[in-house]
Amino acid sequence: MCGRYATTRSEADLSDLFDAADVTEGLGPSWNVAPTDPVPLVRISASHDGKRVLDTARWGLLPPWAADQRGGAKMINARSETVATSPAFAPSFARRRCLVPADGWFEWVRTGKERQAFYMTPADGSALALAGIWSPWGPEKMLTCSVLTTAARGGLARVHDRMPLILPPERWSDWLAGGGEADALLQPMTERELAAITVRPVGPAVGNVRNNGPELVQPVAEATLF
């Protein structure tokens, strides 16, 4: 699963990167995004003539029929293998897809009694576009979202058996458009794209949601992958 990630680029930078109008609500950078946090996403907006907007959503999708917000923390991820058929996720997959900007994501590996945190991020420092879905919830139509996950491969599978579904720029338009063939939309990264992701051991501070700063993604020299 993807339960923590970093997204630190400014609204202006994200707006330029995704060619989207900025309608966010003053989000700041976060090196430790946790479930139910407000996060930036890119979606198609009918109120903006069907064009892309950079918006804000609560991380943890709430279907319109959810009685309250408590279940959102368990809905931060949607499995790519079942997203098109799941009662909770399928309507959003069909009509309300989005891109979730990220610098990288965190996972933990247990070594004896301890857990070592790892940060997965592009070696060249480029931004990631995580495949996401969104849904409005409640009388105020609060935006909520989930990140799709897929089977991890290569070196990433040594850290965790799941990883976010990451989309290169040439796939953004089809993903955001709605409709389309599920098999094509849910294709995982190519081997070349996968090789561009580095695995970096980091310190334990990221395990506490109250910690937030660039030091959380700095490598720990004494730690190794295994």
UniProtKB/TrEMBL annotation:
Pfam families membership:
SRAP
User: Mind listing the UniProt keywords for this protein, alphabetically?
Assistant: Covalent protein-DNA linkage, DNA damage, DNA-binding, Hydrolase, Lyase, Protease
Which terms in the Gene Ontology molecular function aspect does this entry carry? lyase activity; peptidase activity; single-stranded DNA binding
Asked whether the UniProt record includes Signal among its keywords, one would answer no
Tell me the Gene Ontology biological-process terms attached to this UniProt entry.
Answer: protein-DNA covalent cross-linking repair; proteolysis
SUPFAM superfamilies registered for this protein in UniProt: BB1717-like
Question: InterPro entries from the entry?
Answer: SRAP, SRAP-like
Q: Give the EC number(s) under which this enzyme is classified.
A: 3.4.-.-
**ATP-binding recorded as keyword:** no
Note the PANTHER family from the entry.
ABASIC SITE PROCESSING PROTEIN HMCES (PTHR13604:SF0), DC12-RELATED (PTHR13604)
Family classification: Belongs to the SOS response-associated peptidase family.
| Protein name (Swiss-Prot/TrEMBL) | Abasic site processing protein
